[in-house]
Amino acid sequence: MNLPLKTLILFFTGCCCVVGEENITNRYFPETFQFGLASAAYQVEGGWNEDGKGENIWDRFLHEQPNRTTDGKNGDVACDSYHKWKEDVELLKEFGVSVYRFSISWARILPDGSANRINQPGVDYYLNLLKELKANNIEPLVTLYHWDLPQHLSELGGWLNPQIADYFGEYARVAFSLFGDYVKRWATVNEPKSTCLLGYGNTMDAPGLVLIGDGIYQCAKIQLLAHAKAYHIYDKEFRPTQKGKISLVLDTPWNEPISDSANDKEAAEREMQFGFGWFANPVYLGDWPDVMKERINNRSSQEGIGFSRLPELSQEEIDYINGTFDYFGLNIYTALLVGYIPDDDISVPNYWLDKGNTLSSDPSWPASSTDWLHYAPFAMRKLVNYINDLYKPGEIFITENGWCDEELIEDPDRIRYHKGYLSSLLDAILIDKVNVVGYTAWSLLDNFEWTSGYTQRLGLIYVDHDSPNRTRTWKSSGLYYKKVVETRCLVDTCIDEI
Ligand code: BGC
Question: Could you confirm whether domain 5-487 is CATH 3.20.20.80?
Answer without folding.
Answer: yes
